[in-house]
Amino acid sequence: TAGLIRILRANLLDELRKPYVVAARSHGLSEQRILFRYPLRVAVNPFLSTVGWVLPSLVSGEIIVSQVLSLPTTGPLLLQALKSQDMYLAGAIILLVSVLTVIGTLLSDILLARIDPRVRAGVR
């Protein structure tokens, strides 16, 4: 979460220095309206494209944490399956992480297309 917030903050600070924000300020718009109407819509694009990787990283991180803390979850189960060469169980766990990666990427692409009309139009 902290990494995603840093990405959003850095992009938002870059956008706040752009000429269109200065022009909106000169028109007398309130800071809150300027922030939500213009720079946040542009700065949220990299944030949304990164959010898709959170879902699989949660599961992958859980595997490592559960192994370190000896929690009876998928981490030790995957390690035991690999040690005993149970390729069906190990493959199923890895397939689950892969499916979550595809689902997370799909959801972030759909959100990005809904928020930014340039993505829908295919403008480069």
Number of strands: 0
Largest sheet: none
Please give the count of helices.
8
- What characteristic shape results from the CA principal axes? elongated
Domain unit count:
2
Mean pLDDT over the full residue set: 85
Q: What fraction of the residues are assigned to beta strands by DSSP?
A: under 5%
Order of helices and strands: HHHHHHHH
Distance between the termini: 29 Å
Helix content: over 70%
User: What radius of gyration results from the CA coordinates?
Assistant: 21 Å
Unreliable residue stretches: none
Question: Which structural class best describes the helix and strand composition?
Answer: mainly alpha
General description of the model:
By secondary structure, the chain is mainly α. The protein has two domains: 46 residues, no CATH class; 73 residues, no CATH class. It is 82% helix and 0% strand. The protein has eight helices and no strands. Helix 4 packs antiparallel against helix 7 and helix 5 crosses helix 6. The radius of gyration is 21 Å and the shape is elongated. The model has no long low-confidence stretch (mean pLDDT 85).
